[in-house]
Amino acid sequence: MRIRILILCITFFGVLETQAQEKKWTLRECVEYALENNIAIKQSALDVEATDIDRIDAIGNFLPSLNASASNFWSSGLSTDPITNENKTQTFRSSNYGVSAGVTIFSGLRNIKRFQRAKLNKLLSQYNLGKSKDDIALFVANSYLQVLLNKESLKVVEKQHEITLEQLQRTKDLVEAGVLPQGDLLEIEATSADELTRIVQAENAVQIALIGLAQRLLIKNYEDFDIAEQEYLVPGSEMLEKPIDQVIAQARESRYEVQIAEQNKLIAEKDLEIARGAYYPTLNGSFNYNTRESGAKSFARVLDANNPVLTQSIGVVEATGQNVITQTPNLLLVEQDAAPFIDQLYTNDGISYGLSLQVPIFNGFSARNAVKRSKVNVKRTEFQLEQAELDLDSNVYQAYLDAKGAAEAYEAAQVSVKAQERAYEYAKDRYDVGLTNAFDFSQSKFRLENAQSQEVQNKFDFIFKLKVLELYFGIKIADIKL
């Protein structure tokens, strides 16, 4: 029983491994995998996380600062007692404790501007992330279509070679029967050998394209990597029926290039406002609480219990000659131990609070130059925004013309294939009855093969250029269906 279970497990996992090796990647799977694993996209995602930290920093500027401090010292020799401020020659321990709080009440509204800038910067990082995803998705789609193109080109050559092999056998029969000369057979054999060479070249092109796509997906198992075999129909050309002005207007609203330039301009304007905040006074509030204690012994005057009163003569009455005396407490200087730790903390504590105002008068032109540099940067970002809009209009218009030209080229290739197919059938019929030689027949077949290859190339070129135009129109790669 255990042996059967073991055999079943081995068979089950073997099937899973075979299925994993035979996985065929669709375009959507390739794009989604690239969006999840591409290093550039991961870096852009980290930039978004970094802007979240900057936003929290900007919020923290509104909050008061709170700090605590503690210190402990040992002193030996002539030292100052922190409690009595007396210089004593002794060894003792002392400590200080404090809590301080500070808050910026007004700083030229710079904290508010920094918070607004942090929000703009986060939005900018999100736009950069979106642009990275679009660029990677389009790049992967182009590589995927290149694999499809090479595979279709391979199929064309293989199909033509099958026809050549059939014609080769027919030619052999006719040569043996004495209907055709030996030269016709040699011509067909040469054509077959040439096609075998082109099949090998086409197979290599497929493998190179697959390796390139796998590298873009960061997949290292090149040998087992392959894409799904399915028929990719030419999409409808509804996009080409839209007015070019509508496509450009939609691209301005949806494309990240213009949005990124707009955000850079807004951030530059916010930096200018922050720089101007240095012209205004800064008002800060503060609160401090501190206490201290000391382990140093102290000296105190204590009433002598045995002789509490001292009687002293302070003068004589001139008239009577009587002595004038006075009595004072008899105080003795006695060394005492330090007060308890907690008692000292309560006794020696203190509080301070207040406001501080800083008014900028002259700072070596630093504030003024910072404002000037910010103004220059604002102008620069305005030009960059204008250039981004011009580039986008030019790119959309170019993509529109490219897609339209690719559609016309594909239609022309279809017409050419039909014409070459009729010409090939005519040449084949003439060759079968001996009205034409093998060379002319091979040339007709070669022209048909070239027309079919050009049709395949124009087909995928049109698909890709139409996808580029749809991307400009705001249709994401993930939503594009082939």
TrEMBL record:
Pfam families: OEP (PF02321). The keyword ATP-binding does not apply. Keywords: Cell outer membrane, Membrane, Transmembrane, Transmembrane beta strand, Transport. InterPro entries: OMP_efflux, TolC-like. Its main location: membrane. GO terms for cellular component: cell outer membrane; efflux pump complex. Gene3D superfamilies: Outer membrane efflux proteins (OEP). It is found in: Cell outer membrane. GO terms for molecular function: efflux transmembrane transporter activity; porin activity. It comes from the Bacteria. Belongs to the outer membrane factor (OMF) (TC 1.B.17) family. This is Transporter. It comes from Aquimarina atlantica. The lineage of its organism: Bacteria, Pseudomonadati, Bacteroidota, Flavobacteriia, Flavobacteriales.
